[in-house]
Design goal:
Organism: Nicotiana tabacum (Common tobacco)
GO molecular function: hydrolase activity
Number of domains: 2
Number of helices: 2
Strand content: 25-35%
Shape: flat
Keywords: Cell wall, Cell wall biogenesis/degradation, Hydrolase, Secreted, Signal
Largest sheet: 4 strands, antiparallel
Family: Belongs to the pectinacetylesterase family.
Main location: secreted
Distance between the termini: 52 Å
Length: 95
């Protein structure tokens, strides 16, 4: 029975890895198709020194941001996503 469980766990891990790789390729091809410049793309970034300055979320967690430049007709627009983790789940607000 343990062997069967190990096989299922391995199958699950491999499946998740394949899904992650496939979604990364889809995102990459979408950005290339839309002409999105990677120089202006900022992954989710947690503000590390926010705690020492008192700039924290209401639950005391450090704030985070994500920045992505617009494309097409919205090339001069930006999306700034402010997010925090709340009880294990991420909450977001678009500015």
């Amino acid at each position: 029975m343990a062997t069967r469980s190990v096989q299922l766990v391995c199958l699950l891990i491999c499946s998740l890895a394949i899904i992650k790789i496939a979604s990364a390729k889809v995102n990459e091809s979408f950005k290339q198709e839309k002409g999105i410049d990677h120089a202006y793309f900022v992954e989710k970034t947690i503000v590390q020194n926010a705690l020492s300055k008192g700039a924290v979320c209401l639950d005391g967690s450090p704030p985070a941001y994500h920045l992505d430049r617009g494309f097409g007709h919205g090339v001069r627009n930006w999306i700034i996503l402010l997010s925090r983790e709340e009880r294990g789940a991420e909450t977001s607000q678009t500015a």
